[in-house]
Amino acid sequence: MLTLVLGGARSGKSRHAEELLAGMPAPWIYLATGQAWDEEMRARVAEHRARRTEGWQTIEVPVTLADELDEAGDRPVLVDCLTLWLTNLLLGDHDVEQAVSRLMAALGRRQVATVLVGSEVGMGIVPENALARRFRDEAGLLHQRIATIADRVVLVVAGLPLVVKG
Amino acid sequence: MLTLVLGGARSGKSRHAEELLAGMPAPWIYLATGQAWDEEMRARVAEHRARRTEGWQTIEVPVTLADELDEAGDRPVLVDCLTLWLTNLLLGDHDVEQAVSRLMAALGRRQVATVLVGSEVGMGIVPENALARRFRDEAGLLHQRIATIADRVVLVVAGLPLVVKG
Amino acid sequence: MLTLVLGGARSGKSRHAEELLAGMPAPWIYLATGQAWDEEMRARVAEHRARRTEGWQTIEVPVTLADELDEAGDRPVLVDCLTLWLTNLLLGDHDVEQAVSRLMAALGRRQVATVLVGSEVGMGIVPENALARRFRDEAGLLHQRIATIADRVVLVVAGLPLVVKG
């Protein structure tokens, strides 16, 4: 069961994703892609961490997402989030196409619940910054690719899921 | 009956909200949070005002939203919009958390139709401006909180409501 | 049958629109409004073009959309996209209201399948740039007007259609 949870900023997408996994037997693996570059990000990471009760095992994985998914084996996994992972790839000058291909392959090998969180970033005005345009293009394409193999896709609005697939 | 009407810029969310109330007996209270800071805003306020026929009583309420909701008593109310109210709180350096708590309490006391309009502002690229980031975070959190107590939540797209709850 | 296909950047809206027409007998008319101003745009136009197989007749129509719709007669038409057409109108200092009125009239005369693609650009933070604000207002208003006469309106998310109407 592969679920893609999309949503805007502060839409409640992470909380919704956590609730999806909470119905499964613990332990749950939390693959955290966000890096605490600054105070704002540190506060957000701390807030997310405080919300997760026991039963969660958090692993920081800024880049090697495919490897960690394989490593998780038959334990339920939450990836939060694809968007920060893409950011890390772009800022670290990694090969995005190769990394995404490896992610898709790893997702194909998963036999248990996997929930992927992604930010919807493409519904505003075209950004003036070229890197921002590249980023939102890559994010949109990644969401499309994952959606083709996902069992369920939801768009979270004000904390509530709009079912797009499944 | 509490309804949260979300939508992007020029999505037709205000018009949809007005139509929701028009099914109830007049008079309807229109709590207008927008302040006509500039020509663009003045034009928009005038356009909204021109659309509302008799039966509407407009009250300008940039900040004290909870008080005016209590004041409205058993008359149907439309709040247009939460987003400008949040803007006024942030620019006026008010205590957002306290103001939101008071709003939630006032909404809990309402016995008749209340329609709240909010702008969806979190589906674009992360803004470079720190105040803009704070604003879209506060807007997202506010929408989530109201959605938990709302009977109905819709996302207006091209003038048409996508039902998210209710 | 008039269909409005909305979606964010790289949401898969063009591909979804093409698939809608592919169920009809060829030839299909592709009215391409995008102008290859720069390398990025040229690459995108080339990618879209490469995807379209035989059966498609591509006509570049940066401005005179109503005329070309009339010209297409009883052949199925895909307009990709309204957003770039609006951009061309604004940058070329054309009369937007008049052009939109002529488009609406031409759509009213269509007797066969017509699919219009538009970008959802109004769900981010208010742009600081006045032209960008004008553009997103015009885009929102245009989508609303077309939605009132459309048989079907969808919002494409991660390549999948959320049905808003029809």
Structure description:
With 166 residues, the first copy, chain A, is α/β, with parallel strands linked by helices. Chain A has one domain: Rossmann fold, CATH 3.40.50. Chain A has 6 helices and 7 strands. The first copy, chain A, has helices at 13-22, 39-51, 65-72, 82-91, 96-109, 130-149, and strands at 2-7, 28-32, 56-60, 77-80, 114-119, 152-157, 160-165. In chain A, helix 3 (65-72) packs parallel to helix 5 (96-109) and helix 5 (96-109) packs parallel to helix 6 (130-149). The first copy, chain A, is globular and about 45 Å long. In chain A, 47% of the residues are buried. Chains in contact: A-B, A-C, B-C. Chains A and B meet through helix 6 of A and helix 6 and strand 7 of B.
Task: Determine the structural class of chain A based on helices, strands and strand pairing.
Answer: alpha/beta
Determine the fraction of residues in helical runs of chain A and give it as a percent range.
40-55%
Total DSSP helices of chain A: 6
Radius of gyration of chain A: 15 Å
Quaternary state reads: homotrimer
CATH architecture title of chain A? 3-Layer(aba) Sandwich
Protein name (chains A, B, C): Bifunctional adenosylcobalamin biosynthesis protein
Active site (chains A, B, C): 48
Pfam families (chains A, B, C): CobU
Function (chains A, B, C): Catalyzes ATP-dependent phosphorylation of adenosylcobinamide and addition of GMP to adenosylcobinamide phosphate.
